[in-house]
Amino acid sequence: MGVAGYAHFLALAERAQWDEEDVDLREDARRWRAPVTGGGLAPGERERLGTLVASFLLAETAVAAELDPIIALAPPQAQACFAAQQRDEERHARFFARYAAEVGTGEPDEEWRELFEERLPAAARSGSLREAVGLYHMVLEAVVLKRALHTLVAAGVAGAELVLRDERWHIGFGVRVLSDLGVPEREVLSALR
Ligand SMILES: [Fe+2]
Ligand SMILES: [Fe+2]
């Protein structure tokens, strides 16, 4: 399997653009507020989703900001993709802020706080693009965020599918960056299984 080129990712990013203001949150807000007997969320479910919403707001805010030091390390041919990715991450942060304000939220997960507010800034500022992308794209996006987005999609959270679509190209792009750095593709892909 060949690794797709940067132009391919830019084209994907362009086609996938969406506006966080266009996502209809009325049904989510209704379910959040309605009693269980009226089709509302069960109390445990509301708490679980609230934690995820708060955690995503924290995570997307962090990943948007931490691309700056990573972009400074990136080769010229990857710069436009990183810029397109940053535009996506800023939109994701705005989307979850809107979701928290209009639907509901909770307290962020402490493990996520450590991952995104401590480990990510340390890797992004390590001076090693391989280390930064290894944590950012291959662990945080390809494992942590992807898994949690599947949970949001399964719970019927509006907009989650759009965020997941963006994250898919970010992950593919990360694989490409690591492959250009000489990390064997087999090694990268097996880490994702
Ligand atoms: Fe994101
Ligand atoms: Fe992302």
Annotate the secondary structure layout.
Blueprint lengths: L5 H10 L10 H8 L9 H31 L5 H24 L7 H15 L4 H26 L5 H21 L4 H7 L2
Helix pairs in contact: 1-4, 1-7, 3-4, 3-5, 3-6, 4-7, 5-6, 6-7
The protein binds fe (ii) ion (2 copies).
Q: How would you portray this structure in words?
A:
The protein is an all-alpha fold. It has a single domain (about 20-190), classed as Ribonucleotide Reductase, subunit A (Orthogonal Bundle). About 75% of the residues lie in helices and about 0% in strands. The chain is built from eight helices and no strands. It has helices at about 5-15, 25-35, 45-75, 80-100, 110-125, 130-155, 160-180, 185-190. α3 packs parallel to α5, α3 packs antiparallel against α6 (about 130-155) and α5 runs antiparallel to α6 (about 130-155). It is elongated and about 55 Å long. The relative contact order is 0.16. The structure holds fe (ii) ion (FE2) (2 copies).
